[in-house]
């Protein structure tokens, strides 16, 4: 084998290895999007089968569906922490790695530090974190973590994904950004009515599961952005393969 052939052989294997790594990473990213989409469906459907639907996604921690809630958030959190993204350039304030790490840690905190639970009027601890830190502190920490997670995902959509995307995908990312923001604001407002509103307001928010659906809206927008981003990366892989196969 000549030196030119050896160089071409090594370059081809290097490109193939990179394609496999990116392809595997795309599959994990796609799984992340599907996890986000499926979690509200699973919680709602199985909740109806075994009892009733809860007023919010976080309230499912206090039901027999705790494994689904904690497991899904843990998978999302670990992936986001491991995701490094692209290197920060001079036009960016925060790196991909920092934003996704904050989001991942927030997801893990929201998973293992539960809220009080809508029906837990006795304030009795139901989890290890609540026994250690108290129910009220865990409740506040859980909601702050959930807020940080959603805002981090919104930032990623608007200032990371959309910045280098083609016009069509850019519009999708910006739409996801605004949906996450709107869903987060609506969640805060409805949750406030549920906690400190009049009896009629509390009943309305709980009966119509407003917190659950507003949270779901934000989670679905986050999931859609990752699925679209994964398809964009997949398209790049396809173009790279076409270029590598062209004769020199």
Kindly state the mean pLDDT as a whole number? 82
Report the biggest beta sheet as strand number plus sense, adding barrel if it closes.
none
Total of domains = 1
Distance from N terminus to C terminus (CA atoms, Å) equals 18 Å
Uncertain ranges:
1-9
How many strands in all? 0
User: What's the number of helices?
Assistant: 8
The amount of beta strand, in percent, is under 5%
Instruction: Indicate the overall shape.
Output: globular
Specify Rg, calculated over alpha carbons: 22 Å
Summarize the amount of helix as a percent range.
over 70%
The topology string of helices and strands comes to HHHHHHHH
Organism: Marimonas arenosa
Keywords: Membrane, Transmembrane, Transmembrane helix
Transmembrane segments: 31-51, 63-86, 98-113, 133-151, 172-190, 210-228
Protein name: DUF998 domain-containing protein
Structure, described:
The protein has 248 residues and is an all-alpha fold. The chain has one domain (3-245). The protein has eight helices and no strands.
Give a concise summary.
The protein is mainly alpha-helical and 248 residues long. 77% of the residues lie in helices and 0% in strands. The relative contact order is 0.13.
């Amino acid at each position: 084998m000549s030196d030119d052939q050896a160089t071409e052989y090594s370059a081809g294997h290097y490109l193939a290895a990179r394609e496999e790594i990116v392809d595997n990473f795309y599959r994990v990213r796609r799984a992340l999007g599907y996890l986000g989409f499926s979690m509200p469906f699973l919680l709602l459907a199985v909740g109806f089968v075994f009892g009733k639907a809860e007023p919010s996604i976080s309230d499912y921690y206090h039901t027999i569906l705790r494994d689904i809630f904690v497991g899904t958030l843990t998978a999302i959190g670990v992936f986001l922490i491991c995701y490094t993204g692209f290197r920060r350039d001079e036009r960016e304030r925060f790196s991909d790695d920092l934003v996704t790490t904050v989001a991942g840690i927030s997801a893990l905190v929201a998973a293992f530090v539960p809220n009080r639970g809508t029906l837990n009027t006795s304030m009795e601890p139901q989890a290890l974190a609540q026994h250690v830190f108290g129910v009220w502190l865990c409740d506040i920490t859980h909601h702050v973590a959930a807020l940080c997670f959603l805002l981090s995902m919104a930032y990623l959509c608007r200032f990371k994904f959309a910045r280098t995307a083609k016009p069509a995908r850019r519009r999708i990312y910006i739409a996801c950004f605004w949906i996450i923001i709107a869903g987060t604001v609506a969640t805060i407002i409805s949750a406030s009515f549920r906690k400190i509103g009049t009896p009629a307001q509390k009943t309305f928010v709980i009966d119509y599961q407003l917190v659950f659906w507003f949270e779901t809206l934000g989670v679905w927008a986050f999931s859609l952005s990752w699925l679209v981003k994964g398809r964009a990366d997949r398209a790049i892989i396809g173009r790279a393969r076409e270029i590598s196969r062209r004769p020199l």
